[in-house]
Amino acid sequence: MAVPHVREAIRTSLAGLPPGPLLVAFSGGLDSHVLLHVLASLPEARERGLRAIHIDHGLHEDSPRWAEQCRGYAAALDVELHVAEANVLRRSGLGLEASARRARYSEIGDVLTFGEIVALAHHRDDQTETVLLKLLRGAGPEGVGAMRTLRRLGRGWAWRPMLLVPRAALREYAEEHHLGWINDPGNLDPTIDRNYLRMQVMPRITHRWPEAESSIAQSANWARAAADFIDGEAARMLVRLQSLVPSTLRFREWLELPAALRDPVLRRWLRSLDLPEPTHFQASELVRQLAEAGDDRQPCVRWPGTELRRYRDLLYALAPLQFPSPDWSERFTGRPLALPLDLGTLRIADADRELAPPWQVRFRRGGEQLRLAGLGHARDLRDLLQEAGIPPWQRSRLPLLYAGTGTLVAVADLWLAEEGQETLDAIGGRIEWEAGDPVPVSAGAPPIDLGDIVS
């Protein structure tokens, strides 16, 4: 019989969990109903603290009725149920299914308490479909490894105790216990990739190869073990390749990595910076450009939400940049001044009075010179920027301060001219620039307060 198989699979998995209360993601469908029913019957699950959450996506006219049915199911099991309404936003490049999934996990993440474990009802058939979808999208070991039984999720954990249990066993359990479950018509929509696989493809595969689902699940386990090993190596390698500024990577050493490690290091780096990852084509193009571009070139590879730019020995990961107009200009008295395009805030701190006459703030137009205090002669700003190792794309985003005479007296909080130093000394102040994007400076730069730049 299927009943002990389902129950024992969940109980065995439960025994291996870290401490923490349980939250069941409860759609009201067959799979999640079985999961909640089993956990509600296990004293060891009750002792942890057991509750459930139902996400109302609002994508079907019956969704309010489904939420009420779930309340009734949970009440019958004496399980507290939280109903959350998800705002499903269709994002560029994401279908409705993926957008709903993102909204669902966002709501769950908001509800999870510290150390709480959300139980998800994915089973062996879901795992098989996931592996096939990943293969069709050209995934590597991480993708083919499909779903983990346990992984971190926000403040807690995501737990899938039924990945080795076939859907047929869940149905047998539900029928034996006379569970009433919700049938979402969306599960029959063949335009959804997962539904197409389940209804059209898998029946043909299993008819020809009856053990296909079990074999695919085993392959996923092997791929998961390989992916976890590679991920550990990628984590160690990333620590070696990152410079003092986390958003930079020593690209030559990265290119020398084995191909099996190069891509995981790149993706782990971008995830740590909360930047979107590339397609496989974009990642290959990055490798090609970095390998072929001469030292005098500054290749840049872009995809939505991310830019990777090379300068000198480093690869920089950035959100897409915008550049201020060279015609922009603003009067500056020393009070906090918000710069355009979220380039930060400029102020004069600790001054006993405002600038009189005020200075003017604008951005580079080319040909600027600065007479540094104690130097005796003017230096080209271009040369100072190059010597400081400030990447070219940052240079036109630095605020420049001009006295009423039209003389350049300061470059952000990096350099002061003699005239600027005299003015600040007279009012007892100092320039502060709270930059939204810190400006990296090379080790061979002129003396600069690095605490204000890279912190």
Describe the structure.
The strands form five sheets. The protein has a six-stranded mixed sheet with strand order 3-2-1-4-6-5, sandwiched between helices. The radius of gyration is 29 Å and the shape is elongated. It folds into three domains: 2-221, HUPs (Rossmann fold); 242-318, Up-down Bundle (Chorismate Mutase Domain, subunit A), CATH 1.20.59; 329-454, no CATH class. The chain has helices spanning 2-15, 30-41, 43-48, 63-76, 96-111, 124-136, 141-144, 167-176, 193-208, 212-241, 251-255, 259-272, 280-292, 381-387, 392-395, 418-427, 450-454, and strands spanning 22-25, 50-56, 80-85, 117-119, 150-153, 156-159, 248-250, 300-303, 306-311, 314-318, 329-332, 337-338, 345-349, 359-362, 369-371, 378-380, 400-402, 408-411, 415-416, 430-434. Helix content is 42%, strand content 18%. Helix 1 (2-15) crosses helix 8 (167-176), helix 6 crosses helix 9 and helix 10 packs across helix 12. With 455 residues, it is α+β, with helices and mostly antiparallel strands.
